[in-house]
Amino acid sequence: MDAELAKKIDDGEIDGVMFVSASPDGANRQAMEACARTKIPMAGTGGSGVALTQNMGCNVLSASGTTGTTNRTRAVAFTTALAKKFKSNRYLCNCS
Q1: CA-CA distances (angstroms) from residue 73 to 19, 68, 69?
Q2: DSSP 8-state assignment for residue 64
Q3: Which of 16, 63, 75, 88 has the largest count of CB atoms under 10 Å?
Q4: pLDDT above 90: residue 61
């Protein structure tokens, strides 16, 4: 699955990536390497996974940890960051 996602990223089939507790040096390595190669916009959470992703050279627009945030606040922050990048509100949702 990781290799399939990496290919889609490399082929330009994916506009942006949201990640939660990713494993850029393990199960998600190939996809994260593709993200770093293509500089696709990303938003994510997960402490050490975020740090590793950023250190790989990925284009992380929004990053957070889990302490002091909720699933909803993280989802809104990630969606907003990607929508601003694409200068579009088509990615925004009504999260009320």
Answers
A1: 14, 10, 6
A2: E
A3: 63
A4: no
